[in-house]
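Students often ask what a 'structure token' actually looks like in practice. Rather than answer in the abstract, let us consider Glycine--tRNA ligase beta subunit, a protein of 692 residues. Its sequence is given first.
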Amino acid sequence: MKHTFLLEIGLEEVPSQLATSSAKQLVRRAGKYLKSKHISFDKITPYYSPRHMAIRITGLADKQPDVNKSVKGPSKKIAQDANGNWTKAAIGFSKGQGASVKDITFKDVKGVPYVFIEKHIQGQPVSKILTGMKQVITGMTFPDMMRWNIYNFRFIRPIHTLVALLDDKVIPFQILDIKTGRKTYGHPFLGKEITLKDANHYVKPLYDQYVMVDEKDRKQRIKDQFAALEKKHGWKIVPDPKLMERVTNLVEWPTAFSGDFKKEYLKMPPEVLIISMRDNQRYFSVEDHQGHLLNHFVSVRNGGTDYLENVIKGNERVLTARLDDAIFFYHFDMTHSIDYFVNRLKKVSFHDKISTMYEKMQRVQVIAQRLGKQVGLNATQLKDVKRASQIYKFDLETKMVNEFPELQGVMGYEYALRKHENKHVAQAIGEQYMPTSSTGKLPQSPEGSVLSFADKIDSIMTFFAAGMIPSGSRDPYALRRQANGMVRIIQARRWHLPLHAFIKQIVADEDQASVIPNHLDQVAQTKNILKFMNDRIVKVLQADKVRYDVIDAVTGGTSDDLLFIMDTAKVLNQAKEQSGFKDAIDSLTRVLRISKKAKFNGAIKVDSGLFKNDTEKQLNQAVAKITPGYLKLKPADAYKRLTSLKDAINQYFDKTMVMAKDKSLKTNRLKQLTIISRMILHLGNLDKLVVK
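Now compare that with the structural description of the same chain:
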């Protein structure tokens, strides 16, 4: 017979942004626990609302399966003495297994007799196993945890009730002073206490007391109500999946409503209104069918339609107060020039160990010009990048951004346009922070891409030079995120940028422009920065499902051109499926391994006069043929040239003793292999590849 189990934790309101992940964690932990106890089940379904976190497990087995187990003990010569009597070792082993020496048998293991005891372990009933759900609950962890009353136990929010029903029976356990039962609660204002009949009757009893405990049902109800509002008013509610998730997890009995605000607020940039409504009030914005923002908003109440007009008026008053502040800040900012705000940045610290924000902009001007020239921007684009980099942080000193920090960059774009900067300068300013996450939107303009990259590399170089390097999980200045953004911009823009030379060059440019932080040695950290960027490439390639050994190979080479490294990974990832891949890699890695026995610095010249067989000459000619322009080749072409050496390399090793007794011959042959090795390492450390 199969069973159904219901587990519910009744608690104080869970933060909306943590509700979904918390429910998923409960599902994951419960499933892992049951599997560890060998209890089979069909499905675990999560249910959650602000004050309820529950799972229902269907298809539970009656009990654990019985197990016949053969337990091995000491060898026979240890278990019995010379007279055949049982030793203490045998007696102790048998007792430890809940048996006696009468139960001992002998079995040969690799020709040696050992003591064994055959055990039949009776499976425990599922009702007993389910008491372990206490440990499932108490083992949960959350980003935000609380203690309450006199207890040291911590949970996401204080627990008030526990329901644990196996079919219609209560599974007894206790957390702190709270015992499991069958009682739960409805809506805090509309509902009342509920006594659950059994594990199969859960969603409907709560619904009858104004709690929609199924998140999918709540979300669909909100969407249906939104559709009805759109049809009634003839406008469109702007979709926002993240806001929809948060709102869904804020309510147990959702009722959508719309409100209004003064049209004069529409004079402000639309982003000000949208962000103020979304982030501060959790309101949805409204547009007409041409995409123009309207002076309405939509929100969701946790309750019914009673006194809804009062709720609407209250929400309108709160929003009006915030927008009154916003329009005051907007008018203040519009009465001052961009130069006014830029000059104020001279007193704003970027970091007290590095420089002011104004000085950071001076460095970024230099970096952006160098980068722009290197990636092929034209004169007009370089002029726009220069202007953007001179002012791009000005909005940090505006009243609007001081009040709404999340508008950084957004207000820079809006104010730049309103203060008659050209659209390319404004767009670059608006794109300076992109991407803001590992999958965030990238800058769309060449100017914005250059400004964003220049800003990020300046932050990484200066923080590293100041000794503030991310370690472990610590990254207070989000340098990993910024490095990831740099990698993604390079990938999207197809920029070839040898990083070591680029860093060295921009430090020289900064020095010449007298904007380098005098107390920081940025060049000294170049090696650490390159490793740091390589780590970011690893993350990007892992996300692209590139094989681990390919990642190790390309990041272990000598190239510091990030795009070349990523493209090489794709080439090798595809080549590994081709015939001949193993043979080619075997030949090239043999060269790598032997050449490690020599250390040559600088340029190497092979003396052809020391060649003793034709294979040395043939390999030398083959290498000379593929060398011209090799370092400028795309990875696919470089790989093709390298693998063309396979036959010449194999014949060379068949006929040539590299580690000859004659020192001059040995050195010459190692030089010959080192030249090839350097070409291989430009592509990657192919010795890291796993070939079968």
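One point worth highlighting: The longest helix spans residues 308-334. Ask yourself how you might have guessed this from the sequence alone, and why that guess would often be unreliable.
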